[in-house]
Amino acid sequence: MLDFYHRKFNLLVCSTIIESGIDIPTANTIIINQADRLGLAQLHQLRGRVGRSHHQAYAYLIAPPARVLTADAAKRLEAIEALEELGSGFTLATHDLEIRGAGELLGEEQSGQIQAIGFALYNDLLARAVASLRENREPKLEYPLEHGSEIEIGLPALIPESYMPDVHMRLVHYKRIAGATSEEALRELQVEFINRFGLLPTTTRTLFDLTRLKLIAQSLGVKKIRAQNTGGVLEFGEHSAVDPVLLVNLVEDEPESFRLDGPFKLHFKWSLDSDEQRPASVNELLTRLGAMNGDSAAA
After folding, report:
1. N or C end of the chain, less CB within 10 A?
2. Predicted TM-score (pTM) of this structure
3. pLDDT digit string (tens) for 12-45?
């Protein structure tokens, strides 16, 4: 940044961090890529990084064709294009308020991302992040909707932007998947995805598989599952629905495949040919434990 300021080179490639008060009078052109994904205030601040002297300045906003822009993105770009006069900040803020809505601090009428995911879920995510920081733990940003049983199988599980371009729509559907309370509800949601957006990408199929596994694991009282191609471990909660005697019998019958580590951990071994087999293999193991538990209860 200092070299650019002292004109040792003429081109600076950077992130939106430059919106924070960078004052370089000699900079007279800025090119903002994916301008449709930035907020109105961000665009206003970024545009203000050039034209800070008597020289004519230019701001080029790069965005997709108008036909694929969301309604809000189109309004933001129209607003930033229309307001060129000095001192237009207040007018711009008014436009921003009209586009996003004022919202209520604790009411049902919300704006922005909190509107997309709902106040209750937003509050839940915030509470989890605060609790993690208070315990000196890093919030699990890669699994923000994690709840109940924890599944780690080393596979990406997400809704890609190429499948569902609108970020708010993705947030809504993440919420719907996380809120599914039965396998039947998940199946119906999966069919809806296919009907509305096309065949599921691999990462989205994995997301559904993991959510399904969590439902099964929660019903059995399995707290955590870690699985790789060579095996893994199941960690049971203190109030697991699986009879400990059944686990002991399982280890005694198949010592080459299963091993207990204390009262709550069951280690297992297997040999999988590919990563994609992990969800199905974990499902098979949980189904087997559930069947054993059911047979024991019936007896």
Report:
1. C
2. 0.52
3. 898 888 887 778 888 889 999 999 988 878 888 8
